[in-house]
User: What shape does this take?
Amino acid sequence: MRILYMLIGSLLVAAFVIKLLKGTKFDYLVENLEGSEFPLKSIYCVGFSWSEGKIFALKGRTREMLVGQAKLLYDPKYAEYYASIAWAQLLSFVHLCLTFGFLLAGMLDSVLMLVIGIASAVAFGFYFLNRMRDLLKTRESECTAELPEIVSTMALLMNAGMMLRNAWEKIAESKEGTVYELMRRSCMDMDNGMSEVDAMHKFGRLSNSVEIRKFTSALAQSIERGGAELNDFLGRQSLEMWTLKKQLMLQKGEAAASKLLAPTAMLFVGIITAVITGAIGMLI
Assistant: This one.
């Protein structure tokens, strides 16, 4: 088996080098990628090389899923690009982990190393396949948490006589954070000629938050009706949003408490075991 592992590992090394050299034509696709989201970007050309073939090409439901997530996470016109980056990441790291797994299994004559290599390949594949989905979930949570304060501030500014667009821009520039960045992006859209209603709808869609989509849809309908009841609408929404935030905080508290049950139970069992063991020892 050791010889077989070394043979397969050597073939994987040769394939990796060939794909790495062949994929240099894709270097321009990764040279501007920055941040912890794109580790070891220099090897992504291996994944791009594999994806040129029919077997490992990005297609079907996987392609639709990644493109759909990229449209929400990044600019929609770059959705295809970021979907292909995610797929190249997956293929590159899976190949790399399998290569190390077989080589180490052969050199150390250890099945465990092969199992670790395969498990690492599966873990990296799962991570890169779901990375954008997880980022969208984080965005949704952050945006929903900030919504009550945004609505309250907007109601306060508009009751003071400020126009909706001016209030929106003031709130967008007031803080740093995911939702405020999305608001600034919608301000840029309005400056570039997009209507307030369309910009609100786009903001709600990009936030990936059901509550924000409901709010922006209702806000857009109020604007289309002339905005006569806009102040009253914002006042009602502010109360509803703070009630929602209280409910979310209670749910998070219950979830955190339930997570503590397992370690608490283990600690209790450990204490009981120690007491019983000590008592039995004294009796003996």
In short: The mean pLDDT is 83. The radius of gyration is 27 Å.
